[in-house]
Write a structure and sequence with these properties.
The complex is a heterodimer of chains A (about 110) and B (about 110). Chain A is mainly alpha-helical and about 110 residues long. Chain A has one domain: Nitrile hydratase, beta subunit (Cyclin A, domain 1, Orthogonal Bundle). Chain A is about 55% helix and about 0% strand. Chain A contains five helices and no strands. In chain A, helix 1 runs parallel beside helix 4. The termini of chain A are far apart. With about 110 residues, chain B is mainly β. Chain B has a domain of about 70 residues: Roll (SH3 type barrels), CATH 2.30.30. Chain B is built from two helices and five strands. Chain B has a five-stranded antiparallel sheet with strand order 4-3-2-1-5. Chain B is globular and about 45 Å long. The chains are: A mainly alpha (about 110), B mainly beta (about 110). Chains A and B meet through helix 2 of A and helix 1 of B.
């Protein structure tokens, strides 16, 4: 059967599911806010359906490895590039800039 | 997004027995594989929505697709289901994935 990486309902798994909630982190809230803004009618960079499709295109390994919001932000990155809103080089440059700022002790 | 209600005759009736298609899914598909081929009963007609398989590729998502809420018994889905025979799950599925099943006219409901 044709099954995407996210289509895991009913698959056997090792061990029990982790059902405990954890407090939402600032990082997760920021990712959530970013998605809400990008998919808002005013901005409309893409629809949530495109986010799901982008997540489905992750490799099985990445899908297992990354958490819920990390899957979102990786998909957001892919879609911003796909929609020509940002280039991969611009995103990478900004990440390097933020890393340098953090290493410099500023917040 | 708000659903557009179907006009009379556009939707299957609540209570209709349906089977989920086993066709090859779209690139972005909202029908989980564990329900493909399963039989259930229409519980609710949710309404028309823009087509998620097209919205996923930045298209307008037209024509719209009719979304149903379908009830499946767990024992019909999972082999060796150990729970109550009446246990069920509701799934939101688009109409083009559902085929009505002809009920046998043996007098039973």
């Amino acid at each position: 059967m044709d099954r995407k990486v996210n289509d895991v309902g009913g698959l056997p798994r090792e061990g029990a599911l982790h059902l405990e909630e954890h407090p939402v982190t600032l990082h997760e809230k920021r990712i959530d806010a970013m998605l809400m803004l990008l998919t808002s009618p005013k901005v409309d960079a893409f629809k949530v359906d495109a986010l799901r499709r982008a997540i489905e295109h992750h490799t099985a390994d990445d899908y297992r490895k990354f958490g819920y919001y990390d899957k979102w932000i990786r998909a957001v990155r892919d879609l911003l590039i796909e929609q020509s809103i940002l280039t991969a080089a611009e995103i990478d440059a900004r990440i390097e800039q933020l890393k340098a700022r953090r290493a410099g002790g500023a917040t | 997004m708000t659903a557009v209600p179907p006009k009379p005759g556009q939707a299957m009736n609540i209570g209709t027995m349906v089977r989920v298609s086993t066709r090859k899914p779209e690139v972005h598909c909202r029908t989980p594989s564990y329900l493909r081929g399963a039989s259930g009963v229409v519980d609710e007609v949710v309404g028309f929505y823009r087509d998620p398989s097209l919205l996923a590729f930045h298209k307008p998502g037209l024509p719209m697709r009719l979304l149903y809420r379908v009830r499946f018994r767990h024992r019909d889905i999972w082999p060796n289901y150990m729970g109550n025979a009446a246990d069920s799950i509701l799934a939101d599925l688009y109409g083009d994935w559902l085929e009505p099943i002809q009920e046998q006219s043996n007098g039973q409901a």
